[in-house]
Design brief:
The chain is an alpha+beta fold and about 500 residues long. It has twelve helices and 17 strands. The protein has a domain of about 300 residues. The protein has an eight-stranded mixed sheet with strand order 4-3-2-1-5-7-8-9.
Length: about 500
């Protein structure tokens, strides 16, 4: 087995010289102005894994982790197609690539909804008319990724791999809708050691939290704490250990910055007004980096293997733009209020925002190259389509009995904590040997259960594309894994 790590700067050209005059809109929050500079460079990072079978057949898999709020499906497909087209010596096809957005809320806007600074009405204007604003930047990112991955093919070194997953007991994250759960983040590590020296060479770090240590008061581009994790790992090891970040199921999970840990108080008071700063971002990133390095160094030598086989399955799914109509709540008054709010929000999205988007898109020739959502419609009947991905890895060593397995569940959106746990329970490997990776190959929704919508309402139903997305992602993923287990769907290996 051989492995290479890569990184490339994707900071929008000109912003370092021009500042706010470069007119780079920031994604994640409604801000009153364009980005006013760069706190730390925006990066794309990658891990290329190669194994050889039958003596000369090279099998590769590429992890891409990009400092953006989200990755639209059409953009992810474009990146994969360009790699396949231009890096022919890699013989890598789209099913051998996972594209992940780190979900930093201090990234340049890709999909247009934050194109005009301001409040909620500016975001609505962006949703309706801004979908084709950042094609050039996405092409720029793709070209930078092609350069990086092309160089990585020359940097592959023999390695051994190991997997581990632990729970971080410290109070560093919070479920913003259910604070009294005192949620704890899993920390998944895929570790690589240089086969020649035995030294730790690189890590893939999976951690569960929104990338929002920097508050809406921050006016500079940043990779937030995921970028800091990678940078600090390199600092701790004097550049010897490279890394990439993959975010876990954190649709309702936030970092703790300034809200404190009075969970009872927070259960009746929103935590969305936290005012995290660069110091909070460094504290979170440094903490996770130090813990990840500690966990990786504690992996026994017997857990490292020199062969890493994988199989990748991808399926296209369809999710209707539909509302829940049945509400069950202990308080009839609250149920009525939540239902009214949800129906108004749903009605505005389906019967006002999206029709304007579809009408202004025009004919096929004038539609956005990378629309924020992939939608098919017939009149007012609308369906989002996206892709789900499942990866299963088998690690073994020549001359040794036994093998270790782990899986990755790649989801095209933001699963709530409960949805993440459901997906883990359906994996072919045990939950402690499975990672959930959100914002994978697309973003089209928050994924929440019916009770979260009908009993509580709130911000996520307001921002989510379709209320039934959580129901469908559970249904489709369960059927997907059943079909894989029964041999009814083929995978790429």
């Amino acid at each position: 087995m051989r492995v290479a790590f890569g990184k490339v700067d994707i900071t929008p050209p000109g912003i370092l010289e021009k500042g706010e005059a470069a007119r780079v809109p920031m994604a994640g929050y409604s801000r009153p102005h364009y980005a006013r500079g760069v706190l730390d460079p925006m990066m794309a990072r990658a891990v290329l894994v190669e194994d050889v079978v039958l003596g000369n057949i090279k099998k590769r898999f590429l992890f891409l982790s990009i400092d953006t709020l989200k990755i639209p499906l059409k953009f992810a497909d474009y990146v994969k197609e360009q790699i396949q087209k231009h890096l022919t010596h890699l013989t890598i096809n789209p099913n051998q690539i996972l594209v992940h957005a780190t979900h930093t809320h201090a990234a340049p806007d890709l999909t247009g909804e934050y194109h005009w600074p301001g409040g909620i009405f500016s975001i609505m204007r962006g949703i309706m008319f801004g979908l084709n604003r950042n094609d050039k930047y996405m092409v720029f990112i793709t070209r930078r990724i092609l350069d990086m991955v092309g160089r990585m093919a020359e940097d592959l070194v023999p390695c051994r791999a190991a997997f581990t997953k632990v729970v971080v007991p410290e109070a560093v994250i919070i479920n913003r809708r259910h604070p009294t759960r005192q949620s704890k983040s899993p920390l998944g590590i895929i570790a690589f050691k240089d086969a020649g020296t035995g030294d730790l060479a690189g890590l893939i770090v999976n951690f569960t939290s929104h990338s929002t240590t920097l508050s809406n008061m921050n006016d500079k581009l940043s990779g937030d704490f995921p970028g800091r994790i990678v940078d600090h790992l390199e600092e701790l090891t004097k550049g010897k250990v490279k890394a990439a970040f993959l975010g876990g199921a954190s649709g309702d999970i936030n970092p703790i910055t300034t809200c404190g840990t009075d969970y009872e108080h927070l259960s009746v008071n929103t935590i969305l007004g936290q005012k995290g700063t660069k110091e909070h971002m460094y504290r979170m990133g440094n903490f996770v980096a130090e813990r990840a390095l500690e966990v990786a160094r504690a992996i026994p030598e017997g857990k490292y293997h020199d062969t890493l086989e994988y199989k990748s399955w991808v399926r296209t799914i369809w999710v209707p733009l539909r509302d829940f109509t049945h509400y069950h709540n202990a308080s009839p008054l609250k149920a009525a209020m939540v239902k009214l709010q949800n129906r108004v929000v749903y009605g505005v999205k389906k019967y006002f925002l999206l029709p304007v988007v579809l009408a202004t898109a025009g004919n096929e020739d004038s539609k956005p190259n990378f629309p924020g959502l992939a939608i098919k419609h017939r009149g007012m009947r609308m369906n989002c389509y996206s892709k789900i991905m499942y990866l299963r890895f088998k690690m073994s060593s020549k001359g040794r009995k036994g093998a270790d397995e782990f899986s990755i569940i790649a989801v095209p959106g933001e699963p709530f904590e409960d949805i993440g746990n459901f997906l883990l329970s359906k994996s072919h490997t045990a939950p402690e040997n499975t990672l959930v990776v959100q914002h994978a190959n697309d973003w089209f929704a928050y994924f929440f259960d019916l009770n979260e919508y009908t009993d509580m309402g709130g911000m996520e139903p307001l921002e989510g594309t379709t209320p039934v997305a959580g129901y469908y992602i559970k249904k489709e993923y369960a059927k997907f894994l059943e079909d894989i287990n029964a041999g009814l769907t083929t995978g790429h290996s």
